[in-house]
């Protein structure tokens, strides 16, 4: 049941310290110099030269972060919306590892992309939450995110577990694929990942997102911006927000604002800036373009980071490794979406027109 929580979504947001602890358990070497994904038969990686991610919705945003983690270690990677894979992938061979990222393992578009990959002779490895799901049965290999069952239609704890699992997978590939290079900051990254449950706990217990929600009702639209990995967090923040508040929300690459979307910016369109990682300073520059047009800036980032002074309201995250800062920023945006939807009295756990697992193409 929901226990003391009003909604499963809130319960699931609060359960992330535990779910993320399960995701990493036993997978990080004690000396923080490597990972071991023990259930994975690494034979599937033999001869792999590049990786294609296929996914939908929130899982697509997790895959975008996974792709960034792989490109950081020198692995050629592309990310596809699963529904576009058959038409746009072009030739796929046994040197391509196709990775369907799917919480349920039952999403029709993602299964269709998996079948395309299998037919074209690629190696396949699904990253999923559900043992025994169709994706797990049809892929050559499976890597489980171990988030536990998720009841709310809006993906929260499964997104963060997907991102952490893909981050670990990237480090495994960095060690196993010829031509890939382990990250210089691997010990720092793995140390930060082990501390993520504690940091998520800090965010969920101290978040000011509920005060923010009551101040920000009745606007025309909500724009979410970020760069690099924080762009993926912005896209996910906007998806979660529109899904459960029914308000118009869009995510953009911060640098693209001035190439079109800025025409929509007015005092009636708050802009959420994900000010995490090295690109935060440049995202601030773009947020200022919106502020000049009267938009309220809601920033998310570490205390004292470049985004703080540029924001009308600032939600903080612990100052940890940039990858983990992005995960924590996502948790703040989960709470922002949740509390806004609650103020608007929406059907949070079962938003209109949506299903937990989309089994039609
Ligand atoms: O089960 P999957 O991860 O394959 O589902 C993919 C999307 O349908 C899903 O992430 C959807 O976007 C969520 N409801 C978003 O919160």
From TrEMBL:
Ranges where the SIS domain occurs: 40-180, 212-351
Record's keyword annotation contains Transferase: yes
EC number: 2.6.1.16
Transmembrane segments: none
Highest taxon of the lineage: Archaea
Protein name: glutamine--fructose-6-phosphate transaminase (isomerizing)
Uppermost EC category: transferase
């Amino acid at each position: 049941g929901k226990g003391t929580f009003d909604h499963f979504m809130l319960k699931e947001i609060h359960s992330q310290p535990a779910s993320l602890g399960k995701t990493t358990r036993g997978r990080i070497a004690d000396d923080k110099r490597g990972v071991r994904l023990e259930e994975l038969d690494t034979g599937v990686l033999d001869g792999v030269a590049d990786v294609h991610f296929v996914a939908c919705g929130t899982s697509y945003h997790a895959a975008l972060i996974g792709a960034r983690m792989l490109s950081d270690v020198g692995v050629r990677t592309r990310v596809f919306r699963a529904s576009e894979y058959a038409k746009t992938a072009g030739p796929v061979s046994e040197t391509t590892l196709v990775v369907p990222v799917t919480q349920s393992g039952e999403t029709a578009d993602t299964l269709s992309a998996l079948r395309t990959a299998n037919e074209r002779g690629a190696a396949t490895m699904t990253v999923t939450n559900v043992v025994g799901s169709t994706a797990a049965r049809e892929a050559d290999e499976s890597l489980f995110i171990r988030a536990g069952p998720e009841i709310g239609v809006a993906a929260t704890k499964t997104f963060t577990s997907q991102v952490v699992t893909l981050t670990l997978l990237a480090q495994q590939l960095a060690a196993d694929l010829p031509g890939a290079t382990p990250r210089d900051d691997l010990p720092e990254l793995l140390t930060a990942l082990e501390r993520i449950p504690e940091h998520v706990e800090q965010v969920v217990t101290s978040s000011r997102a509920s005060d923010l929600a009551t101040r920000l009702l009745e606007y025309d639209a909500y724009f979410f911006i970020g760069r690099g990995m924080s762009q993926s967090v912005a896209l996910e923040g906007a998806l979660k927000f529109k899904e459960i508040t029914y308000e118009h929300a869009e995510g953009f690459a911060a640098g693209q604002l001035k190439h079109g979307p800025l025409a929509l910016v007015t005092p009636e369109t708050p802009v959420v800036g994900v000010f995490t990682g090295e690109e935060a300073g440049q995202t601030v520059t773009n947020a200022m373009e919106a502020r000049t047009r009267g938009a309220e800036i809601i920033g998310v980032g570490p205390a004292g980071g470049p985004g703080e002074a540029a924001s009308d309201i600032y939600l903080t995250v612990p100052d940890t490794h940039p990858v983990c800062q992005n995960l924590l920023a996502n948790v703040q945006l989960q709470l922002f979406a949740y509390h806004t939807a609650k103020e608007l009295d929406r059907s949070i756990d079962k938003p209109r027109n949506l299903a937990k697992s989309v089994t039609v193409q």
